[in-house]
Amino acid sequence: MPERIVIVGGGLAAHRAAHTARREGFAGELVVISDEARAPYDRPPLSKQLLAGALAPEQVTLPGPEIECDWRLGVAATGLDLAAGVLYAGEEAVPYDGLILATGRRARPWPAPLGLSGFHTLRRLEDSLALAEVARPGTSVVIVGGGFIGCEVAATLRGLGVEAVTIVEIAPYLMPVAGPEVGERAVRLHRNHGVDVRLGASVEGFDGVNGAVCAVRLADGERLEADVVLLALGAIPNTEWLAGSGLTLERGAVVVDEHCLAVGAQNVAAAGDMAAFPHPHAAGPVSIEHWATAREMGALAAHNLMVAAGERTPFRAVPTFWSDQYDHKIKSAGLLTAADAFTVVEDDPDGPGLVIEARRGEELVGAIGFNRPRALIDYQRTLAEALA
Predict the structure, then answer these.
(1) How many CB atoms lie within 10 A of CB 378?
(2) Residue where a domain terminates, one of 286, 311, 336
(3) I need a surface site. Which of 119, 158, 163, 362 has the fewest CB within 10 A?
(4) Torsion-angle region of residue 290: left (phi > 0), alpha (psi -120 to 50) or beta?
(5) What angle do CA 134, 139, 144 make, to 5 degrees?
């Protein structure tokens, strides 16, 4: 077992790693380094309860007993020397004999300089508070990107009484990763709640007045008025600081083995959405941007870092995801991106129920449902048994 473990990151994966290390008897020095000045907090409420004002910032702090750590908050990691076993945070050299990387992702920026105010992204607590401050009744909000975050924010803003909410999505339906059947159901759901959904639409640029955005210009020439623009374009790993470290990166994510240990560095683990791990339904390493995956990987990374090689546990968890939009709870299980076909197995035309299976050939690789949590629990159990 290592004597000094350093954890880099301030989110759920880092929190679970620290909690697990102490719970499983690690008595050595435990250092947590995070570029966020806040203690670890829960991110799913950022697009829902926190944005809506139903929860205060202190209420999204992750629960649990106080973890005995050397918390170094507001300090960014800047480099890693694998051979020397040293992490660099700011100007400080931090030695380790066990290292857990859990730096997460940040919102993908617009690919060109904007030069105007009024643009927002949603990844951190401060982002949610800033958006809540300006997205009020009477404002026009355009959301560029119709993935889960864009859809959740649209639903929350409509619940707050923001009348003019528009989603611009380049795909032919919303939440493209979930397949056409779910995406088309989501389109109907949002339009029924007053959201203007523009599909197959790309953004050409933005207009401004007095230094602030005032409109979104679409490629077809249409101009959408906007007081506020949310850029919901996905996320990119916070791993630039690892360039030249010797770790293997795949699309920016740290590649790990089935035990969450970094390839080629057995005293370094990685967890959460900045890690790419092997999955039997994927052709190569995959990164999963789900809350449950971060929780499970963080705990397992700490466990496997502390035990002997023969005692390590492989990561076999089934990816799960949920999304609350209006009075609908959307839940998925499995690796939907591995599917080549989506089949509706239950559809209530007079109600909100929907269950869809995701298959690769004849093999079940996932399922997603609207307001059918028990059915998704069964699918999760089936998928877990197949992976065991």
Answers:
(1) 13
(2) 311
(3) 362
(4) beta
(5) 80
Instruction: Provide the residue range defining the domain that includes 164.
Output: 109-231
Q: What is the pLDDT of residue 351?
A: 66
Q: Are 333 and 366 in contact (CB under 8 A)?
A: yes
Lookup result for tokens 């790693």: 17
Confidence class for position 71, pLDDT limits 50, 70, 90: very high
CATH number at residue 66: 3.50.50.60
Residues 204 and 245 in one domain: no
Within 10 Å of residue 310's Cβ, how many Cβ atoms? 5
Residues 71 and 55 in one domain: yes
Could you give phi then psi for residue 335, rounded to 5 degrees? -100, 90
Q: Does residue 83 sit in the same domain as residue 95? A: yes
What is the sign of the dihedral through the CA atoms of 179, 376, 329 and 356? positive
Shared domain check, 130 and 116: yes
In a domain, 68, yes or no: yes
Nearest CA to 88 out of 271, 262, 244 is that of 244
Q: For residue range 145-196, what is the model confidence (pLDDT) as tens digits?
A: 999 999 999 999 999 999 999 999 999 999 998 889 999 999 999 999 999 9
Q: Which amino acid, one-letter code, is at 255?
A: V
Each residue's pLDDT tens digit, 13-33: 999 999 999 999 999 999 999
This prediction has a pTM of: 0.95
Report the CATH number that the domain containing residue 355 is assigned in CATH.
Answer: 3.30.390.30
Is residue 91's pLDDT more than 70?
Answer: yes
pLDDT in tens, 220-263: 999 999 999 999 999 999 999 999 999 999 999 999 999 999 99
**Per the structure, how many domains does the chain have?**
3
Q: How far is CA 189 from CA 154, 172, 183, 197, 367, in A?
A: 11, 15, 10, 10, 19
Any domain includes 289: yes
